[in-house]
Amino acid sequence: MKPRLLVARAIFPEVLERLAQHFELITNQDDESWTAAQLLQRLQGAWGIFTMAGERIDAALLAACPALKICANMAVGYNNFDLDAMTAAGVLATNTPDVLTETTADFGFALLMATARRITEGERLLRRGEWTKWRYDMLAGADIHASTLGILGMGRIGQGIARRGALGFGMQVIYHNRSRLDAETEGQCRARYVSKAELLRDADHLVLVLPYSASSHHAIAAAELAQMKPSATLVNIARGGIVDDAALAAALRAGQLAGAGLDVFEGEPAVHPDLLTLPNVVLTPHIASASRPTRLAMANLAADNLIAFHTQGRALTPLNRV
After folding, report:
1. 147: which DSSP letter?
2. What is residue 133's DSSP assignment?
3. Phi then psi for 172, rounded to 5 degrees?
4. What span, in angstroms and rounded, lies between the C-alpha atoms of 48 and 23?
5. List 24, 102, 198, 268, catalytic entry
6. Over the stretch 224-240, which tens digit does the pLDDT of each residue have?
7. Cα–Cα dist 121/119, whole Å
8. CB contact at 8 A, 8 and 61
9. 268 an active-site residue?
10. Is the pLDDT of residue 167 over 90?
11. Helix ranges (DSSP H) in the chain
């Protein structure tokens, strides 16, 4: 008898076909947004769950689902998982690292460029029919080449952004991280380690790529924004909650910061209403990894974790030990 697997969101049909060879599937191809109670109800008796980083797995859910053995996130981030509670309950957690690194770094750099060069402002002006003549200062933004790129969080994606900036645009790259990179990796990225205060002070373009945790909540808030150059831009492709969105909106409105590019938000899919009214913000709906090949690779890795754990007793990319 096949173990029961809940697939909590819509996924690629070909990945479902792979999973169906090993599991009795409960699917959600209509992609309904379930409440916590609805998720709990559907998870009864399930051996595993395929999640999309929006489904909260905590102690209360685990206590009500004693048959659950594995939760496979189709994401690198896993702040929807209470890892301590999962480990205590003997439930394995997995994620999908590496397969989205380069695509996400591409998008982070695209968001940086759109913000610095005011691309979405220009498109909106043109679509409104307000482009009637050329003017010397029309939509004059900031240079990217030869500027200083700051990166907060220097994991795989941060390193990818550093390489693009240093090698492709001749940027001076500085970074801050919980731990300093080894000398060889710093050399490959042409990046220099600095304190957080120096990073905020010196960056012309600051990109956030750190994981979300209680310690990184509002890592960029009013005090940090006040330390940045008024000409600087801020890009967040990490997680909502790392930036205090209300403080960011206030800083942008007051001219403390030139612009921001945001792919993630506190409480998403809701967006702070003040951000929606500002012209100098580029807003995208959490799509940094959204190329079809990358999303398919993420889905397949999540499936590989489930299949390997079922057939071999071990997953490819575990987050905890059970």
Report:
1. S
2. S
3. -85, 120
4. 9
5. 268
6. 999 999 999 999 999 99
7. 5
8. no
9. yes
10. yes
11. 13-20, 36-42, 59-64, 83-88, 101-116, 119-127, 156-163, 169, 183-189, 196-202, 222-226, 245-253, 273-276, 292-312
* Nearest by Cα to 239 from 210, 281, 215, 214: 210
One-character DSSP codes across 165-182:
IIIIH--EEEEE-SSPPP
16-38: pLDDT as tens digits: 999 999 999 999 999 999 999 99
Q: Which of 283, 287, 186 is nearest to 243 (CA)?
A: 283
What secondary structure letter does DSSP report for 53?
S
Buried b (16+ CB within 10 A) or exposed e, 296-309: ebbbbbbbbbbbbb
Catalytic residue among 176, 205, 239, 310: 239
- Clarify whether 135 is annotated catalytic: no
Residue 53 has pLDDT above 90, yes or no: no
d(CA 41, CA 62): 12
pTM for this one?
0.93
Whether 130 is a known active-site residue: answer: no
Token pair listed for 155: 């994991």
The pLDDT of residue 40 is 96
**DSSP β-ladder status, 148-152 and 205-208:** parallel
pLDDT 10s digits, 34-52: 999 999 999 999 999 999 9
Give the domains, in start order, of the chain with CATH numbers. Answer: 4-97+292-312 (3.40.50.720), 101-283 (3.40.50.720)
Name the active-site residue from 56, 190, 201, 286: 286
